[in-house]
Every structure is written in C-alpha cells, then in structure tokens.
Amino acid sequence: MTVSGTDGTTRRASAVPRQTAGSPVESVLPELRALSWETGIRARADAGLLSVFAELPRLVGKALGISWRADRVRTSVAAVATVGAGVMAAFGLLATQRVLVELFAGGPTPHRVTAALPALGVLTVATGIRAGVGITIGYAQNTLAPRVSREVERGLFEVTTKVRLDAFDEDAFADDMERASRGTDSAIDLVQGAMNLFAGLVSLLAVTVAVIVIHPLLLPALLVATVPNAWASLRAGHQRYQTYTAGSVRRRRLWILHQLMAERVSAPELRSYGLRQFLLDQYDRVMRVETDIQIALARRVTTTTSIGSVIGGLATGVVYGLLGVLLLDGQIPLSAAATCVIAVQTAQRALSTVTFQIDRIYTDGQHFGDYTGFMARAVDYLPDAGGGVAVAPLRELAVRGVGLSYPDRDTPAVNDVTLTIQSGQTVAFVGENGSGKSTLAAMIAALRAPSRGSIEWNGQQLAEYDPAGLRARIAVVTQDYHKWPFTAATNIAIGDAEATPQQERIERAAERAVAHEMIRDLPHGYETLLDRTFAKGQDLSGGQWQRITAARGFLRDADLLIMDEPSSALDARAEDALFQAIRDRRGRATTILITHRLANVRHADRIFVLHNGALIESGTHDELMTTAGRYAELFALQAAGYQSGRSCA
To answer: Where is this protein found (predicted)?
Structure first.
C-alpha cells in the first residue's frame, strides 16, 4: 500500500516518516494543530519555577472568586474547616510532645502513664476533630464542584447560544470557543486545587508553629529535612510537562488513530478498503517512538527524585545528628526531639501536597484564562437588542441593495440584491452552487445581518423589531440540518419550542411533510430516540431526516417559511407530496423555496435567479423561459437529462 506524502510524493505506507513537534507537517495536516487542552500544559512547560510562584497568588485569588460566586456558604465552610484542621494539627503535635514529656519523665511507669493521660486525651480529641473537619472539607468541596461547574458552564452557554451567527465564520472565534470549553472543566480543578493548596499550606504553618513552640532550634532542622524533596518534586513535574508538550504531535496522531479504529462512522470503510493493517502499522510506528520517550522520561524523573531523596535523606540524617548533639548537651528534652521527627514526616506529606497542587493550579489557571478571555471578547459578537417594535403579520418583504461579505473571501457572497415579496406568494431562489441563495435567505430570516443595504418587514427594517417576535413569524428549514439526539416527536416539536406543541399538532406537521407513516413504523413510533449513541436509538436515512426537518418547519405555520433544499434526498413520491404541501400555503402564507430541481419551482409566483451573489433575472417560469437566459439554460439542461434517461430506457 502507498500513501501520499505532504510534499506530494508517494511512498510505501511502512515508510511514513516519524513526526516531531514543530515539524512542517504540523502546519500542513489539520489534525495536527494544537488541541485546546494542551494550552495550559504547554504554558506550564515554558514557565520557570519563579514564574510559577509569581503567578500563583493571582490564580488562587481567581479560584476563590469563582468559588465565592458559586456558593458563599460552602466556600466559607471549606475555608474555616481547613484552618480548623491546621489548628488541630498544631494541637496534635503539641499534645504529642506533652505525652512524650510525661512518658520520658522519671518515676514509676504507672505514674508516668497516668500523668500522660490528660495530654493523651487532648491528642485523641484533636485527632477526632481533625478527622471530622476533614470529612466536612471533603463534603464542602464535593458539593461545591457541581455548583462551580454550573456557574461557569452556564455562563459559557449563555454566550455561545446568543452570539450572532457570523461569529462562527471567524476562525479566531471558533478557536477561542474550543479553548473556553476546556476552561469550564478547569474551573472545578482550579477551585479544588486552590483549596488543597490552602490546606497544605495551613498544615505546614501548623507544623511550623508547633515546632517553634516546642523549641525554636527545631525550625531550621525542619526546613533542611523537607526542602530537598520539595525541590525534586517540582523539578520532576517540570520535566514531565516539557516531555508532554514535546510529544503533542504524536498524541494528536494517536488520538486520530483511536477514532479511526474504534468508531462506528469509520468502521464500514475501514473494512471495505482493508485499512486494518495500515492503521495498526501507523499506530505501532507512533507508539514505538512514544514508548521510547516515556522510558527516557522515567529515567530522568527517577534520577531527579532519587537525587532529591538522597539529599533529603542526608539532610534528615544531619537533622537527627543535630538532635542527638542537642540532647547530649541538654539543650532540648528527648520529648522535643521525638516530636521533631513526627513533625518532619508531617511536613514532608504537606509539602508533597503543596508541590503537586502548585503545578495543577498553574496549568488549570491557564485554561481558565482561555475561558475568561473568550467571555470578554465574545461581547463584540453579541447581537443588538433590537428596537422592540411588535411584529405584525407579514404584508410585504422588501430587500433593498443588500450585500454581505464573509471575512475570509475577497468577493461578496451577496452583492447589491433588490427584490420584493408580497404576502401569500411562493417565490423561489435558484442558481448554481455558490450563487448566494442560502446567504440571502439567512439574511431575510434575520440569522445574518447585511454588510450593506436593508431588509424591511412591512416597511420597517428587521433590526427595529423585537427579535423574539420576529423569530416567531419565521420558520426555516436549512439544507445543513442538525440531527438532534431526541425522540422523533421532540425533533419536530423544537420547530416551535416556545409554544410546547401538543401531539396532535406534531402529527399534523409530520403528515404535511410525508413523515407520519414513516415515524409510526419506527420501533417506538414518535417516542423513538433518533440517535444510535443511546440504547434503543435508531438511525434514519437522509431522506427520512429531511422529512423530519420539513415537519419541523411546517409545525410553526409561520407567516414566512424558508425551505432550503428540502427534497434533495427524497424519493419521487415523497418529493411530490412535500411540494404539494408547500403549494397549499399559496395565498395564505409566504414561502421562499431554494432548490436545484427546477421542475419544482414552475408554479412559483416569482423566480429570482442569482449568479455570483447578484440577482440577474426574475419573473415567472414562462417569462424566464421566454427570455432564454440563465434560468432557461439550466432548466433545459435538467430537462434534457430526463429525456435522455427515457430514450435510453
């Protein structure tokens, strides 16, 4: 088997070159562009430890702000409980030291044990309270997480569902939105990381205070015994992040291979073209490189942590030697030395928590920064509030000198189009692919704002009307319909979601779209779930989905119905029935029909012919055929195809 290289050459599949981060291939293959969840990790890899510590206070403040807005009570409980846990830790160490003082004192053993009982009781109570406080902290964090998620995620969806449709034409907006969606998950991790960091710091502070109270000379010993391991943990984390970002291209390639080999949509072609071995070879090639890199990383991390452990062990030995000297000189009691050993172990555990959370907070903070940045920039894409004028039934729709240009194109999609549609008319927009038909319809439906010109409903511009009222009088059936993962009934009902239609209305709309019998034949009728992702879900063919979407448009029975290629996948009988339902609207409601099948627009009151975004012809079918222009040419080509088919038969 051969594959085409990115340079246009052809080579055997087994000779596909190894890809590395930063290679030209990354800019050529779209699947190799950076993924949203890599941005924070890359930022952490590029940042030095000093930069991380400098950024930490701001990120922690941001996390606490999110938590406070989501639930003030639980945030307060978690904070107070964390401080309480630290206080109990300090009391526990002091009580431990007091127990040891009594046990190491002179006199008979029973007397020493009896003397130690009060301190032992305090230790037991402190340990019990600390355990209870730990449960409280865990409960507060666990119940806070869904509230933080709701607060952040709903804010994102409020923006993404409200921005203008043209926002999605901007590459920068799409990339921002993808990264922002990762930021919603990071908000929870950022809040929990900040709380865990706070808990670790409180624990360290408690140990420090207890050690100073026991004997000030023990504080330097504590630092010497714990800092080396903390440095090693941070350094090892930095190595992991650097290796992770260097392998981003490989991971994206593996991610694509996972999808290709284990998803339903690719399964038929994988088998029909015999791609199994080819994809497995690709997987093996990438994984061999990844495995070697992970092994090398394991060696580096092991070396770093081992050095930290050795230095920490030597430092701990020095501390214990120092304790011995102090004991021999009588500068500290034996109980203080024993307590110091416990304090060192407690501090090491707390530092381990702190170092882990520092990396986590920095990484998640970058992701959440993507979210906040997107939310700030998305304000520029919000639609105007509208004039609030009530929308009367349609009498006349006027398009005056309308044009629209997409940001990534040199030529306008629609250019200086002027036309008028009267109430009750059925009109058609026809033309070749890319002529601007769908874009013009989207502007009429108030889904896009014209770059120039105006569109008027009963003599007033669309922007002057109440947006919700305007939408209620317009129904749109798009050619790029979405397959909503709901039941058949719900898929139709969302055509008039604000009115919560009853079953009778849903079925009437389905009958007009030639979908009623098809739906009744499904395993659960109108309650059949139309998505195979879920249990007992069903697949529909393209033609069946078009019937569902047409029913969605008929349901509202709006003043203006726009149908964009409503029959491209329908069989002849269903197509004829659908267009009969469209013709039934003539005289009582307005319909704009967009189709390439010109035989279906012969009965339209008016046909508008577009070419390269401009309106070049208009009239009835007979008038346009007499003119012998572009419409007549296209109609003749289609008619000749049917005639050729009959002669061949």
So the answer is: Cell membrane
pLDDT tens digits, one per residue of 216-231: 766 776 677 777 777 7
- Count of Cβ atoms closer than 10 Å to residue 132 Cβ: 14
Cα–Cα distance for residue pair 506/516, rounded to 1 Å: 9
| Helix, strand or coil, per DSSP, at residue 73 | helix
Q: Is 54 exposed, middle or buried (0-12, 13-18, 19+ CB in 10 A)?
A: exposed
pLDDT digit string (tens) for 325-382?
A: 776 777 777 767 777 777 777 777 777 777 777 777 777 777 787 788 888 888 888 8
How many angstroms separate the CA atoms of 631 and 627, rounded? Answer: 9
At 329, list the tokens: 């000189």
CA distances to 34, 60, 62, 135 from 189, in Å: 22, 12, 12, 19
CA distance 342 to 347: 9
DSSP letter for 16, please: P
Give the amino acid at 597.
Answer: R
Per the rule left: phi > 0, alpha: psi between -120 and 50, beta: everything else, 568 is alpha
Phi, psi angles (nearest 5°) of residue 269 = -70, -30
Contact 78, 202 (CB under 8 A): no
The whole-number pLDDT of residue 22 equals: 37
Write the pLDDT tens digit of every residue in 110-135.
Answer: 665 676 677 677 778 777 877 887 78
Q: CB-side exposure of 399: number of CA atoms within 13 Å?
A: 24
**Structural contact between residues 19 and 253, judged by C-beta atoms closer than 8 angstroms:** yes
- Rounded to 5 degrees, what angle do the CA atoms 339, 340, 342 make? 65
What's the CA gap between 224 and 335, in Å, rounded? 20
Contact 592, 429 (CB under 8 A): yes
pLDDT digits (tens, 9 = 90+) for 316-335: 777 777 767 776 777 777 76
> Hey, how many other C-beta atoms are within 10 angstroms of the C-beta on 341?
14
pTM for this model (two decimals): 0.69
Determine the Cα–Cα distance for residues 269 and 266; give it in Å rounded to an integer.
Answer: 6
Query: Higher confidence at residue 316 or residue 588?
Result: 588
- Which whole-number Å values give the CA distances from 511 to 292, 574, 577, in the listed order? 62, 11, 10
**What is the chain's Cα-based Rg?**
35
Predicted pLDDT of residue 102: 57
Most confident of 4-13, 452-461, 572-581: 452-461
For residues 119 and 577, give the distance between their C-alpha atoms in angstroms, rounded to a whole number.
90
Q: Alpha-carbon distance 387 to 365, whole Å? A: 40
Fill in the amino acid letter for 384.
Answer: D
Tell me the backbone φ, ψ of residue 59, rounded to 5 degrees: -65, -40
Distances (CA, A) of 534 to 343, 529, 541: 54, 8, 17
d(CA 112, CA 106): 8
Q: What is the pLDDT of residue 101?
A: 60
State the residue for tokens 């088997």.
1
| Cβ 590 vs Cβ 423: under 8 Å | yes
User: Which band of pLDDT confidence, cut at 50, 70 and 90, is reported for residue 30?
Assistant: very low
The pairing of strands 590-594 and 426-430 is parallel
Handedness of CA 573, 574, 578, 579 (dihedral sign): negative
Residue 23 in contact with residue 252, Cβ under 8 Å? no
